[in-house]
Amino acid sequence: MKGLKIAVVLAAAIALLSSSIQAQEKKDQIVPEANIKETKIIRLHYIGGITPDVLKVKPGTTVVWVNDSRAMLEIQFEGKQVTLACKSPVHFNIDENGSFISDRIPQDSVASLCFVEKGEFTYVARKAAASTADQPRPSVKEFKGKIIVE
Question: In the chain, which stretches have pLDDT less than 50?
C-alpha cells in the first residue's frame, strides 16, 4: 500500500512540475526547465518532523515536499533565501522581497521548488494544531530542515 501511495505522489509531483501553475511576476527569477537535473523527495510527517532533515543536492535539482501530516503546512526559508528557481514551482510564490515562500500546502499534497543557486538553505515547516476547548487559539508546531546545494 505504501508503494502505491509513493507511486501516486510521485506521479502527481511529476504532473504538477510539468504544468505551468501560474504566471510569475518576476520572470528573471525563473530559469528554463531544461536545467532540471533530478528530483528529491522530503516527507513532512505528523509526528517526527522532516525526513530527511538535511538533504544534499546538485544545482538543478527539484525538491518535492510531501505533506504526510494531518494539517496544512507552510514552508519558509530562514537566513539565505531562495531567489532563483527553475520554472513551475508548485505551492511557492515570490514575496515582496523577491524570495520564494510557500503558500498553504494541503495534507496529502506536494510542494516543489527547483534549486539553482549553490549554498545552504535552512527552512522551517509550520503546521497549525487543531483548537481545543482548553486551547482556543491554535498552537504552531515547527520543524526545521536544510537543503545544501553543492
Answer: 4, 7-9, 11-13, 15-28, 34, 128-129, 137
Q: In the prediction, which pLDDT does 88 show?
A: 81
> Which residues constitute the domain of residue 44?
2-149
Strand blocks (E) in the chain: 30-31, 38-45, 50-51, 54-57, 61-68, 73-78, 85-86, 92-94, 100-102, 110-115, 119-128, 140-149
Q: What is the CATH number of the domain that holds 132?
A: 2.60.40.420
CB 36 within 8 Å of CB 58:
no
CB 39 within 8 A of CB 82: no
Which residue shows C-alpha cell 543557486?
Answer: 117
Cα–Cα distance between 85 and 59 in angstroms, integer? 10
Q: CA angle, 52 as apex, 74 and 101 as ends, to 5°?
A: 25
Label the pairing between strands 110-115 and 140-149: unpaired
Phi, psi for 135 (deg, rounded to 5): -135, 85
